[in-house]
What we know:
Layout: E1 15-17, H1 19-24, E2 32-36, H2 48-61, E3 66-71, H3 76-88, E4 91-96, H4 107-113, E5 117-120, H5 126-142, E6 147-149, H6 157-173, E7 179-184, H7 188-197, E8 203-207, H8 215-228, E9 239-241, H9 254-267, H10 276-289, E10 298-302
Parallel strand pairs: 2-10, 3-4, 3-6, 4-5, 7-8, 7-10, 8-9
Antiparallel strand pairs: 1-2
This protein binds pyridoxal-5'-phosphate.
Pyridoxal-5'-phosphate (PLP) is lined by residues 46-47, 76-77, 153, 155, 183-190, 272, 275-276, 303-305.
Amino acid sequence: MTAERVDLGGHDTPCLPADRLGAALGFGPGMLWIKRDDLTRLAGGGNKVRKLEHLVAAALAEGADVLVTGGAAQSNHVRQTAAAAQLTGMDCVGVFSSDPPPVPEGNIIIDRLLGLDERWMGPLGFHEVDAAITQVCDELEAEGRAPYRIPIGGSSPVGALGYVDSADEIDQVAPAGSVVYVAVGSGGTAAGLGVGLGSWDRLMGVDVVGGRSLEGFVARLGSEAAALIHRPDPGGRAGFDRSQVGEGYGTPTEECHAALELAVRTEGIILDPVYSGKAMAALVADRRSGRLPADQPTVFVHTGGLPGLLVDRYQSWFPQP
Ligand SMILES: Cc1ncc(COP(=O)(O)O)c(C=O)c1O
């Protein structure tokens, strides 16, 4: 059974061998592949477009006229949601877990171009963002609007369906039995991938937030997504790597910086400093330690996030020549 979705350009992204990067890491030829979900079609691309195809379908089916979601100031998810709203004729409210920055940078510039209604809530924890999204929805309803609530990162069971599709696409082209590396923020991407891959054993989720246990949460979300499309619960047990968080979400690490340089100087591919760079740093560390054998077919899911590189915080990585 397939789920309802609207076409926002989130599907059929390239999944290609990355032999130059693979060789630099000592993989055998044809063993390392990259799924280019940074190349989804909406407002700079990224992994959230896949989730939004399902979430927007649900919103339109309910008669919603405004999408409400939230995240950190540099949320790629909020940017892509604002673009999805424009493409489908809805408004979009973004709830942010901080004060507004003095100077707009990165994703915020694009949010403003997209006409996002920004609500800056001051410093909020992960779960408080979801509560603030609900509160904004209640306020909008009281004003006679029809909001559709999208949790942080779009990680509802409906949103996770987008990543079942991505796994299906991976399995059509990548070598059989590939393991899949992906960054884990709110968990929906990993949850959907696990369902699509059919076994948690094939998934390595790289945590970029820290301070939490992911196993139960991601498996539960995967189960709920699987039930929506009558797929079986995946067997096995997902691996979660917590070694790349550094001092916390978004903090620069030397391993991430090195992974960014390696990817761009072998494949011309730009990773981001918050998610995909840290996921690649985990893959590099696992290959170098031998935990990931040279003959293990491996797919790295590039989840996007490039605008987040264009902020002041990471400029020390790029000294003036
Ligand atoms: C670029 C990028 N990669 C990975 C993720 C993580 O995806 P998820 O929140 O589904 O775990 C995000 C989430 O915001 C993201 O923006």
